[in-house]
Design goal:
The chain has about 250 residues and is of the alpha+beta class. It is about 30% helix and about 25% strand.
Length: about 250
Amino acid sequence: MLRKPINIYKLLLITLTLLFCTDKLHTQFYITSRSLKKEQPRIVFDSLTYTSLNNETVSGFGFVNPIDAKSIVFIKEKPKENLVKGWKDIKVKSATIYTSKLKDLSYRMLDLDPNLDANQKKRILSKNYAIDDTINVFFLRHIKGAIANNLRTLYYENSKARIFKDITSNYYATSQIVYFQTQEKPVYESDTHFLNYNNHKAFKKSVKRFFKTCPKIVENAQNGDYFPRSGKAFRKIADDYESYCEN
């Protein structure tokens, strides 16, 4: 039986991913403790832009504080030393973080092949490996229930709804909660409702509680829609809200 040839570039990119993620995870364990160390490794500082509580837009380098995700660790200038001092812990309304290290490394590795032109390299990367190098985080408030207000990642939005997920951290286990807002107000001013994906019964109960004015969503959830937890389920409930519900 003939074996399908191994795609060497796909294998290379997977290997790079594992190496990069292992290094990143090691660093995350280094920086996560009850209080952040005064010296932080340079590798965790990504380029970012944040919106302050006074609505100022500021650019620099940093990451979401892994202790409780309530703030960002920030420094204005690009770090040059292996260990970074003098960073600030800043409360923000939102931040856009550009985690482009893996993409840059992947392009550099593909550059080693002189037979590939720019379009071929782009096609290999887009076909074999999806690299999400931009993360949008927002401080969610007014959450109904005993859940802390903090920064969450925007996963999906349409004209009427927004879906957020918890930020992945090695300091605490990622919850099975997903966060829902309408588009009536800006994120920072909006009420935030949660959908409990810990089990199907809890999920249907949370849907019934929040979507009581939109019977179509409640009916669909009772019939098994939007569960189990998946990106497809998140997009469907937001899109159904856009189609069937009045703000």
